[in-house]
Design goal:
The chain has three helices and eleven strands. By secondary structure, the protein is α+β, with helices and mostly antiparallel strands. The radius of gyration is 19 Å and the shape is elongated.
């Protein structure tokens, strides 16, 4: 049990639990570093790996704040499922303003996926261009609505002239943008930077097993 852990791991578990109680979402590695007065993020990462091996935590490095306490009853929230998005060639899937899109249905998710659950929505994935990121045809991606992204983040990109959207990694390159698939058999899409609008950043993936 927790009291059998080393003192540093006990402190990390207490910090994560307290952070969840206070904020409703998990801390980042750097939050833990500062909150537990640990010398570096690599030391935090080492201890988190030990807690995962011990069965105290689950962790997804593909998801922002992807730390889950095993056995903890998580708060659930309902978010809208707006439409489909292409993980392949772009598809016309939602209107210019995502916020006004008609909801197809809704889905319950862990409230810890993002700090502001009011900005979350989901899209169904069509195609396999993100298969190497463990996102396949038929999955559902959870996005945090925003209009900007860091290089390399996975986003829903709206191509203005084509009135189409696609799910890709975002790489601004001067006057153009590279929309990079996660599939070694597919090539990147290059578009004029003025023709691309970010509609959301991927924070999670939902999969139904049959």
């Amino acid at each position: 049990m927790v009291d059998q852990l080393r003192p540093r791991q006990q402190a990390i578990m207490r910090f994560i639990e307290d952070f969840l109680d206070e904020n409703g979402y998990p801390p980042t590695v750097r939050d833990i570093q500062y909150g537990c007065n640990i010398s570096s993020t690599s030391v935090v990462d080492y201890n988190l790996k030990g807690l995962v091996r011990g069965g105290f935590l689950r962790r997804s490095k593909e998801v922002s704040r992807g730390i889950e306490v095993v056995g903890r009853r998580e708060r659930r929230v309902k978010i809208p499922v707006l439409a489909a998005i292409a993980a392949g060639q772009p598809l016309p899937v939602f209107p210019q303003d995502v916020a006004t899109a008609i909801e197809e249905d809704s889905v319950d998710i862990d409230a810890g996926m993002a700090a502001n659950t009011d900005k979350l929505y989901a899209l169904r994935v069509k195609g396999d261009s993100m298969i190497d990121a463990l996102i396949r045809d038929g999955d559902m991606v959870v996005l945090e609505a925003q209009e900007s992204a860091e290089p390399g983040e996975m986003v829903a990109a709206w191509l203005v002239q084509e009135e189409e959207a696609t799910l890709k990694r975002f790489f601004p390159e001067g006057e153009r943008v590279r929309l990079q698939p996660e599939n070694t058999t597919m090539t990147a899409i290059y578009v004029d930077a003025r023709n691309v609008q970010i509609r959301g950043r991927v924070v999670g993936v939902l999969r139904r097993y049959e």
